[in-house]
Amino acid sequence: MTSQRDAASGGRLLDTLSLTHGLIIRPPWVDRILDGQKTWEIRGTNTQTRGPIALIQSGLGRIVGVVQLVDVRRLTIDEFRDGAEHHAIRDAVQRPLPYPTCYAWVFQDPIRLPQPIAYTHPRGAVRWVRFRPPLAVPPSYL
Q1: Total domains present in the chain
Q2: Residue 56 lies in a domain
Q3: Which terminus of the chain has fewer CB atoms gathered within 10 Å of its CB, N or C?
C-alpha cells in the first residue's frame, strides 16, 4: 500500500490497497473501531501481523472496513483498567483481565467501506482470514 494521501479526499489513500489479512470482529466492536471510538482490540494472543488489514463483521461474512494494525502491547491489569478509553469496555475498572495473557492490538486510520465487500470465507476461519491472492480494494472504496 502506498503511504501517499490526497488532501482533497480527506487524506484517503490514492492507490489500490492490497490486503492479505482480514480480522473477524463481532458487532458492536467492529462499528466502534470504524467510528474511531475504539483503538485497541483486546485479544488473548499476540500477532506479528502489521499494516493494513480488512475488518470482517462476524455473522455478516463481508468486509466492512480497513484499519492499520500498528502495534501489539501486552497489558497488565492496571493498563487494561486504565485503557478503557482505548478499548471501550465500560466496566473495565471492575473486571479482571479477560484472558490469562491479555494483549491490546493497536489500530489507526479506520476506514468504513461505502459498501461491504464479499469474499470467500475459508472453512474453519474464526479469527483471521488470509486472502490468497491478496484482495485488491480500489481507491473508490477508500
Answers
A1: 1
A2: yes
A3: N
pTM of structure: 0.84
Residue type, 59: G
User: Does residue 55 fall inside a structural domain?
Assistant: yes
Residue 1 lies in a domain: no
Single-letter amino acid code for the residue at 130: R
Rounded Cα distance, 134 and 17, in Å: 9
Q: What is the CATH number of the domain that holds 117?
A: 2.30.130.30
One pLDDT digit (tens) per residue for the chain, 142 residues: 333 344 444 544 447 788 999 999 999 999 999 999 999 999 999 999 999 999 999 988 899 999 999 999 999 999 999 999 999 988 777 788 899 999 999 999 999 999 999 888 777 777 899 988 888 887 777 6
Q: Which domain holds residue 52?
A: 17-141
